[in-house]
Amino acid sequence: MIQKIKGTMDLFPEETVLFRYMEGIMREEAARYGFGEIRTPTFENTELFVRGVGDTTDVVQKEMYTFADRDENRSISLRPEGTASVARALIENGRYSETMPLKYYYIISCFRHEKPQAGRSREFFQFGTEMFGSDSPAADATVISLAASVLRRLGLKNVKLHINSIGCPDCRPGYRAALVDYYTAHKGEICDTCKDRLDKNPLRLLDCKNPPCAALAKKAPRTVDHLCEACERKFKTLTAALDKMDVPYEIDSGIVRGLDYYTGTVFEFIAEGIGAQSTVCGGGRYNGLVESIGGPSLPGIGFGMGITRVLLAMKEQGLDKEIVAEAPRLYIAALGEAASVEAMAITERLRRAGVYCECDVVGRSLKAQMKYANKIGAEYTLILGDSEIECGKAQLRNMKDGTQTEVELASFTI
Description:
By secondary structure, this protein is an alpha+beta fold. It is about 35% helix and about 20% strand.
């Protein structure tokens, strides 16, 4: 038997109805905040992610699905995230000359070669937003508020917003030096991966989940204590705006995010009760990204929300039980070939009028058909036999209270 690739998912209707529900709310909230949908290719030139995401990140070094293009001498990668692709599209299509800000959202599948576990798969689904052209804390607050609004609309409880600022190119070197000094003094206590990061990307040391490294991270120098005047002022303005907007948050110096393009504001929404992969949404500011991949200097901020992780949180809180597939308004039970043809004709007429209607297509007995109508939650049933076709009338049964009403088949609607 051929099986699906490890770390991928088969989603049947009882699952996809949940995805569609979530995606509907995500689209509605994005539109409410003035974000329009963008769609980008599933695969890109590998160089885009190396330059955009960062060649020292785990994503680029260990997790990307990369292969050689058959027709051209180049390397291609399945997208591991959405932001770099949107930035590339913006540059390639000259959108940076338009009136700012530019606000986009997307619902996409991404691919990373990671160890599968609850909330982490190799193909995963993400709702993301990107805002370009504003370096104002108001843009940060807007993007964060949008993420909070989506999670609130979904009914999730016990989701906490953690925010931090990791500084800009002016103040980052001073913080980096303090971090290197701290970890160099504890070099014998950190894992081999972090020893490598100490030279290449010391900020990532704060994000290590290895217990000894995580314990050291709690006592490490804080980014918010090494901000330049401009970054400190922006961060204070952001927190003041969130306070006024009634968006609760916690300042968390351990939030640094795992991709190189982040600068300034970074944030995560963390859900309790769904296991190790508890971050359901993460994002931040990336003012140097567009320039790093060949575009103009253009500030940006955005987030990625893991749809599968959000669904795990919803299931943990029992919210999925409230979301069910639409039930048919009518099920037509037919007895005999002539009745089956008539049932198909009525069903088609009602469907063209926008009514969700079903009829028998497998040749069940009347008893089995009524049982099936009940199973799929049909609101009404209509039984057709030779006598009903001959007189042009049939009994419409309300499946909830059992009452029946005679209807004319030729003009019948519901």
